[in-house]
Specification:
heterodimer; A: alpha+beta; four-stranded mixed β-sheet; 2 helices; B: Hypothetical Protein Ychn, Chain: A; 5 strands; about 15% strand
């Protein structure tokens, strides 16, 4: 298993829609292309939201997993 | 993604303004431009000295609705004004006051919160709306 180098982390646990996506979009903006962002979110809509956001913006969803109510996403900046 | 999302805000209650702010921030996060046109009671809610006040809820909310909204707020949900500020930081969000409503409510431009970018008429709003979707809230 390769260990990914995370450039920024977004803790959006406890935040409701659309804040997990808004905070992630803010975190991705200043990074260099190819940089990775890890996001934690508990909003139940975040699974579908992150897939859709990744498809629309072109930022790649590299990893996604769920542990209880917490979703974890790793995004690679376009 | 180039056509803008166009929101006409008419209602001035916190629940409807929150719903509008969520739609705005979501579109901004997708890189979609958003035009917001403020009319009547929505415009009233953007007065500089009233924006952070309690603006009540739509009649259908009832007592249970009030409780749910209060619970959400206590759980850390940000206000609609803050949601809009973050949306503006993130993307292309233009908020304009309807000039007719300004006259009707005797509001001057300096009475409005800095979230509002300017005053325009319905013609300018339609022109900027292009072929994008229009939502009335």
């Amino acid at each position: 298993m390769t260990v990914l180098e995370i450039a920024a982390r977004v803790d959006a646990r406890g935040l409701s829609c659309p804040m997990p996506i808004v905070k992630t979009a803010q975190a991705v903006k200043p990074l260099a292309p190819g940089a990775l962002v890890e996001v934690l979110a508990t909003d139940p809509g975040s699974e579908r939201d992150f897939v859709a956001w990744s498809r629309a913006t072109g930022h790649e969803l590299v990893e996604r997993s769920v542990d209880g109510a917490t979703h974890r996403f790793v995004i690679r900046r376009k | 993604m180039d056509e803008p999302l166009n929101l006409v805000l008419f209602s001035g209650t916190d629940d409807k303004l929150q719903a509008a702010a969520v739609l705005t921030a979501g579109a901004a996060a997708l890189g979609k431009p958003v035009n917001v046109f403020l009319q009547y009671w929505a415009l009233e809610a953007f007065r500089r000295d009233r924006i952070e006040r309690d603006h009540g809820l739509a009649p259908e909310a009832g007592v249970d609705g009030r409780r749910h909204v209060d619970d959400l707020r206590r759980a850390g949900q940000v206000s609609w004004a803050d949601t809009l500020r973050q949306a503006k930081d993130l993307g292309e969000v233009d908020i304009q006051a309807c000039s007719l409503s300004m006259d009707l409510l005797a509001i001057e431009e300096q009475d409005l919160d800095p979230l509002v970018d300017g005053v325009e008429g319905v013609t300018a709003f339609y022109l900027n709306a292009g072929q994008g979707q229009l939502v009335f809230i």
